[in-house]
Design a protein that fits this description.
Largest sheet: 5 strands, mixed
Mean pLDDT: 92
Structural class: alpha/beta
Radius of gyration: 23 Å
Strand content: 5-15%
Number of strands: 5
Length: 325
């Protein structure tokens, strides 16, 4: 023993499970450990346990995770705000079905995305919303999220007379039908959809968009300018919205990224904002580890026990990942 008090691997794993896995605050984690197990930990001890765990992740897990994400064929990306030190910071997410990287940065745009160190070297297909900062990374083909644009179209349709024809409603129906075609083709084991199969849906979408551009060309009001910008974007970036038809490995929406990043917002809802940017970075690193482990069928507590033992679980050595590769 090299300290007045020593805590074993399981105790450290349990503390991290409550703090980083179940989103308790440091004080509530200490209270839970005392009441459940009779182990009296201070809030500072919990911070120290997490700091040692993050140091282990930074040596092996995080560099490997970034490398695997950079080499992926399809990658989801998203960002959301988080209160840190009483200020708005930005959480960035890069993910696949098996991997999750969550980072935090003071900036939302290009600087924050670049700091995550994935998209600058990525050459596959990123799936994201129409946030302009992602368009800076031109080495990849993009898939714009259809779920986001459908929500924008719904807002347009809700402003119109329900009894009248609306270009936005036709665009929604066309997009939904095209996504259904892709889902059916994917279920049938196809790699892409024949152009003739999707011709009707594409035609209905283009017709609706051109009608929207014509109807709002005057741009006389703020709502009309918003609708015109939306219709113009659907026309100019049709290939990016419909890339999921030519490559069925690409999802039509970015809902997976929203699910992965929602856990960070849940932490803020349960325990409030984080008090330091360093602590927020530690939380995001631990969240990346736990989310990735869970996607590969490894329980959080087991993953944390390996981490506190100094042998973090790594994706490339996961039996589940190897078996499905």
């Amino acid at each position: 023993m090299d300290a007045p008090v020593q805590y074993g691997e399981q105790v450290r794993a349990l503390a991290l499970y409550l703090y980083g896995g179940q989103f308790l605050s440091k004080d509530r984690t200490a209270q839970a450990m005392s009441e459940l197990f009779g182990i009296r930990l201070s809030a500072g001890t919990i911070v120290a346990i997490q700091a040692r765990a993050i140091a282990t992740l930074e040596k092996a897990f995080l560099p490997l995770l970034r490398d695997l994400l950079t080499r992926a064929d399809v990658l989801g990306a998203d960002e959301t705000g988080l209160r840190v030190e009483g200020k708005l910071r930005w959480v960035h997410c890069a993910r696949t079905d098996r991997l999750t990287l969550v980072t935090i940065h003071p900036r939302r745009g290009r600087l924050g995305i670049t700091a995550a160190d994935v998209l600058p070297a990525f050459t596959g297909t990123p799936v994201h919303d129409c946030w302009a900062a992602y368009d800076v990374f031109l080495s990849a083909d993009h898939q714009l999220c259809c779920a986001h644009v459908v929500r924008e179209l719904v807002a347009v349709a809700e402003r119109e007379d329900p009894a009248a024809w609306c270009w936005a409603t036709q665009a929604i129906e066309a997009l939904v039908d095209l996504q259904r075609l892709a889902a059916d083709a994917r279920a049938a084991g196809l790699g892409a959809i024949h152009l003739a199969t999707s011709a009707d849906g594409r035609h209905r979408l283009r017709s609706a968009v051109q009608a929207g551009i014509s109807q709002t060309a005057a741009r006389a009001t703020k709502a009309m300018r918003t609708e015109n910008n939306l219709a113009d974007r659907l026309a100019s970036r049709e290939a990016d919205y419909l890339r999921f038809l030519t490559d069925l490995a690409v999802p039509a929406d970015n809902n997976g990224s929203e699910r992965d990043i929602r856990m960070v917002k849940l932490r803020q809802k349960i325990s409030g904002c984080l008090r330091s940017l360093a602590g927020a970075r530690h939380f995001c690193a631990l969240r990346s580890y736990l989310s990735t482990a869970r996607k590969n069928d490894l329980g959080m507590l087991d993953a944390l026990a390996r981490l506190t033992a100094g042998r973090p679980w790594l994706p490339e050595t996961s039996p589940t990942l190897t078996a499905t590769a």
